[in-house]
Write a structure and sequence with these properties.
mainly alpha; about 65% helix; about 0% strand
């Protein structure tokens, strides 16, 4: 879940319907030296608030589908999937 691509974290957190506080904690965990500038944090919060839960879930479904297709074509066994309830 700790990813250098902050947008992925925002989408995943919104798809799981996490609070901004929890999402912010995840962002800090993935940040260099656990630091994020105030400007970046404000920008990410605005992006997070604009995201829609259902749309974020659809994005994750497409991503999972592409990963499964790639795994099937490579012969690798896919990892178990996490599902939001």
């Amino acid at each position: 879940m700790v990813d250098k691509n902050r947008e992925v974290i925002l989408i995943l957190a919104k798809a799981l319907d996490l609070s901004w506080t929890t999402t912010m904690s995840l962002l800090f965990l993935g940040a260099a030296n656990y630091r994020i500038t105030a400007g970046d944090l404000d920008r990410m919060k605005r992006e997070f608030v604009r995201l829609n839960v259902e749309t974020s879930r659809q994005v994750l479904k497409v991503y999972q589908s592409r990963k499964e297709t790639a795994a099937d074509s490579s012969g690798l066994r896919p990892l178990p999937q996490l599902h939001a309830h």
